[in-house]
């Protein structure tokens, strides 16, 4: 089926851990082709020997190269996402934007407006939506199986220490990183929004326990809120956990039962007791991204690339993570951070 369709041609801007993961998933997808990489650092330092494609040291020269490119994947530090995405769209390309879409609501809105003006697709990377427990719980909520939502508790307790916040890097920088909720936990806020909708009446407390020397922002927070659609919730998070990630979990208390999804990456259903319901066997979740000394979210970038290919080949597939949703996540995080 795939062979008679034109391959979707990708360029990846930013060749750090995540950029290389994007490049790898593009190379592995039968409907995709990697045509260029771009990074401001020297090619020799990047460890990209596996990808013998055109290399550019700045995005402008990539855009002026005349290469046939359909999609540009923006995998640079958070604070640069919006600006580079807008450049890519204005030059006639669809974009995949690593999370978060932007650090300011007005920048996310500019990306959205530019995409509408130029009629280009924006795919925001929110890969936790693809893990089997997420897909399952989404169906449970959308079908009304759980009834009214009463209480939702999100816990994100990870380790991020000097092995992650290295001197001279962008992690921990106020302008480039933006904060713990943007870089570490925006996936979980995305899942919450995707499942339960928007929040209101937010209250929050923040602390910086062991990152004073490492970052410009808090390492821990306790946030409570109400859902616009009914029910209430809280988000408890910290990157001050000693030595290794502890858990990311979501607990739901609802009218017809209770569920807890847990594990290090919300990758297993730990508790499920629902009226007249037998829990099915779910497919296994992909392992977490392994960055050596520290770990990240589940490796689901392959689903993101697959979705891009299917949408752009006009198979009838829908964009699963739109610019509007990317904007909403930035908006929610900004409203939480406004309470600092």
UniProtKB/TrEMBL annotation:
Domain GFO/IDH/MocA-like oxidoreductase per the UniProt entry, residue ranges: 137-259
Gene3D superfamilies for this protein: Dihydrodipicolinate Reductase, domain 2, NAD(P)-binding Rossmann-like Domain
Record-annotated Gfo/Idh/MocA-like oxidoreductase N-terminal domain positions: 8-122
Pfam families for the chain: GFO_IDH_MocA, GFO_IDH_MocA_C3
Protein name: Gfo/Idh/MocA family oxidoreductase
Species per Swiss-Prot/TrEMBL record: Parabacteroides faecalis
């Amino acid at each position: 089926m795939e062979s008679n369709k034109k391959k979707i041609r990708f360029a990846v801007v930013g060749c750090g851990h995540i950029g290389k993961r994007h490049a790898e998933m593009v190379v592995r997808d039968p409907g995709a082709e990697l045509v260029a990489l771009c990074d401001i650092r020297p090619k020799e330092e990047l460890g990209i020997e596996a990808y013998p494609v055109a290399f550019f040291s700045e995005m402008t020269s990539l855009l002026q190269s005349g290469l046939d490119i359909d999609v540009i994947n923006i995998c640079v530090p958070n604070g640069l996402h919006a600006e580079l995405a807008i450049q890519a769209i204005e030059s006639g390309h669809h974009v995949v934007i690593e999370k978060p879409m932007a650090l300011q609501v007005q920048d996310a809105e500019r990306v959205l407006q530019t995409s509408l003006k130029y009629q280009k697709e924006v795919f925001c990377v929110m890969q936790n939506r693809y893990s089997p427990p997420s897909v399952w719980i989404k169906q449970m909520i959308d079908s009304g199986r759980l009834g009214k939502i009463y209480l939702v508790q999100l816990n994100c307790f990870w380790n991020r220490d000097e092995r992650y916040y290295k001197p001279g890097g962008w992690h921990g920088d106020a302008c480039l990183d933006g904060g713990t909720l943007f870089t570490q936990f925006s996936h979980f806020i995305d899942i919450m929004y995707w499942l339960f909708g928007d929040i209101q009446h937010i209250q929050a407390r923040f602390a910086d326990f062991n990152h004073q020397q490492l970052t410009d922002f808090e390492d821990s927070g306790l946030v409570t809120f109400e859902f616009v659609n009914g029910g209430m919730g809280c988000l408890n998070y910290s990157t001050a956990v000693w030595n290794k990630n502890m858990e990311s979990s979501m607990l739901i208390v609802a009218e017809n039962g209770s569920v807890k999804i847990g594990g290090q990456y919300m990758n297993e259903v730990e508790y499920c007791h629902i009226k007249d319901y037998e829990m099915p066997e779910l497919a296994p979740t992909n392992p977490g991204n392994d960055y050596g000394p520290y770990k990240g979210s589940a490796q689901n970038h392959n689903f993101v690339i697959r979705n891009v290919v299917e949408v752009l080949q006009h198979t009838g597939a829908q964009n699963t993570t739109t610019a509007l949703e990317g904007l909403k996540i930035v908006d929610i995080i900004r409203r939480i951070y406004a309470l600092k």
